[in-house]
Amino acid sequence: MWFDVNFLLLLINELPINKRKLKNIRFLSVLLKPIETVYYNWFQLRKENIYKLNHNGQVCYLRKSLNDKFDTVLRRIYITNGQINETAVIYTEAEQQDEYIGSETEEDFLWLYTEGETGDTGLDFIVYVPQEVYDNSLHSVNAHIRFYKAGGKRYTILVISE
């Protein structure tokens, strides 16, 4: 690529042939060190910006970026919807719908919740993180999520119960 520069090789190639002595090359390479440092910092910033551009607030990308930054080995961070309990509507026989209440002995039975348990929790998504991430870098996780999430989305961070 155009930005992949080997400054030492460029220095040697641009030096006149009669000046290509080891002493001159070493002296000029010392003068090049600040430029190489600036180039290295720019290159790292470029890689970081490309990573940020390739990720957004979608759940899959947000989860990946959180795991890449805070839980690289075990990748335990995950994201769920903000509503904790699933809402189910029970119909009367006259309405002729398919949702009925089963008994507890049946394999697929329906749990009944109050309106407060299934109502709006005020959250759009919940981020579950391991205890050590929660203890050590909660503010960094918050900043990371705020950077990527869509505007107006509400969230909370909870500890994974193990």
Describe the structure.
It is a single chain. This protein starts with 6 loop residues before the first helix and ends with a strand. Among the domains are: 48 residues; 62 residues. Strands 1-2-3 form a three-stranded mixed beta sheet. α5 links the parallel β2 and β3. The protein is rod-shaped and about 100 Å long. The protein contains five helices and three strands; from the N terminus they run αααβαβαβ. The longest helix has 33 residues. α1 packs across α2. It is mainly alpha-helical and 162 residues long.
Topology:
Layout: H1 7-14, H2 22-54, H3 59-70, E1 78-81, H4 115-118, E2 125-129, H5 131-148, E3 155-159
Parallel strand pairs: 2-3
Antiparallel strand pairs: 1-2
Quick take:
This protein is mainly alpha-helical. The chain has helices at residues 7-14, 22-54, 59-70, 115-118, 131-148; strands at residues 78-81, 125-129, 155-159.
Class by SSE composition: mainly alpha
Number of strands: 3
Strand content: 5-15%
Overall shape: rod-shaped
SSE pattern = HHHEHEHE
For the largest beta-sheet, the strand count, sense and barrel status come to: 3 strands, mixed
Report low-confidence residues grouped into runs of 5 or more: none
